[in-house]
Design brief:
Blueprint: H1 5-22, E1 28-32, E2 36-41, E3 50-57, H2 70-77, E4 81-87, H3 96-107, E5 116-122, H4 124-132, E6 140-144, H5 152-155, H6 176-179, E7 185-190, H7 195-202, E8 209-213, H8 221-228, H9 231-240, H10 245-252, H11 259-271, H12 275-286, H13 292-304
Parallel strand pairs: 3-4, 3-5, 5-6, 6-7, 7-8
Antiparallel strand pairs: 1-2, 2-4
């Protein structure tokens, strides 16, 4: 059921109170027009000299307006300073007030107080991380399943987010692959099995881009990483500049032991009716654990092929 305007406003007010309360001490909280909010939480000590700019969608149903968004909680738990930039709804951050905000940060040399700056986001937030990294040349970017643009002239093949079409992608901070050129390094994590996601990723074609294919991890990629036990090592390593693509690939090999990943692969094989592959896959999993759902899938595929165990 869609939320009424009154319910939406109540949620936004709750978010405002939560964020403003967190920024009371040394940081700041700022409303950037009617649909965006920014919160800066500095941390002391050597680790606080790293700033992570994270982009979130506050209207995501997984968000709890009574607590900080996951990305900001994670960032501050590592001892880093955070600048959380948040949207209400599918804005793609295409707002003149947002552009002015990042222009002012650059003009005021806000980023110069930090030794290291990273921009981070997923999907729409991944687009923003790439696009607004232009405000801080030399930053690191970590983008998960980002869009390059949602302009219909350049990405008319992507019909997933029709509400994004209303925005102008030709003004400031518009085309993410162009904007990210000034970054020191940009990690693009994407599920190449998803056609639109893979097509966006191929539009990032400059030397500072590191493409990291993560098949069968989908839009819930961070949940898969968490299940694998590699979420913090990958994100922290990319932000700190302490991992290489080979290191990340090595960590991603743990996906074979992730129940979330295994279930995603199983659903794919079932939907494609690849019974022979499914039988082999289920037998491998069943050799490691009981996995009742895999037992049922195995039996169904054996029956479909007229075979017995």
């Amino acid at each position: 059921m869609a939320k009424s305007e009154e319910q939406k406003q109540m949620l936004r007010d709750t978010w405002r109170n939560t964020l403003a309360e967190q920024a009371e001490k040394d940081g700041f909280f700022q409303e950037i027009g009617p649909l965006h909010k920014a919160i800066f939480i500095p941390e002391k000590g050597p680790l606080g000299k790293t700033l992570v700019v994270a982009f979130d969608n506050l209207d995501d149903v997984r968000q709890d307006p009574n607590r900080m968004p996951w990305a900001i909680d994670f960032i501050n738990s590592q001892g880093w300073s955070s600048l959380g930039f948040m949207a209400h709804g599918p804005t793609w951050y295409r707002d003149e007030d947002v552009f002015d905000f990042f222009d002012k940060l650059r003009k005021d040399k806000f980023f110069d107080q930090f030794d290291r700056v990273a921009f981070y986001g997923t999907s729409m937030g991944g687009y923003a991380a790439c696009a607004f990294s232009a405000a801080c040349p030399g930053a690191t970017v970590i983008a998960v399943n980002p869009q390059a643009t949602m302009d219909r002239d350049r990405a008319g093949w992507d019909h997933r987010y029709r509400k994004s079409w209303r925005h102008n992608y030709y003004s400031r901070y518009g085309y993410a692959p162009e904007m990210v050129k000034a970054a020191e390094r940009a990690w693009i994590f994407y599920d190449a099995r998803m056609p639109q996601v893979a097509m966006h990723a191929t539009l990032f074609q400059i030397p500072n881009i590191i493409h990291m294919g993560c098949p069968f991890m989908g839009h819930g990629m961070l949940n898969v990483w968490r299940d694998m036990g590699v979420l913090k090592p990958i994100v922290s390593g990319c932000i700190n500049g302490t991992v290489t693509p080979r290191d990340v690939h090595q960590m991603l090999r743990k996906r074979h032991d992730s129940k979330t990943y295994q279930k995603t692969v199983l659903r794919h094989l079932e939907s494609e009716e690849k019974h022979a592959l499914l039988i082999r896959f289920c037998k491998i999993i069943r050799a490691k654990r009981r996995a009742p759902h895999f037992k049922d899938a195995l039996e169904n595929s054996l029956k479909a092929l007229g075979r017995t165990a």
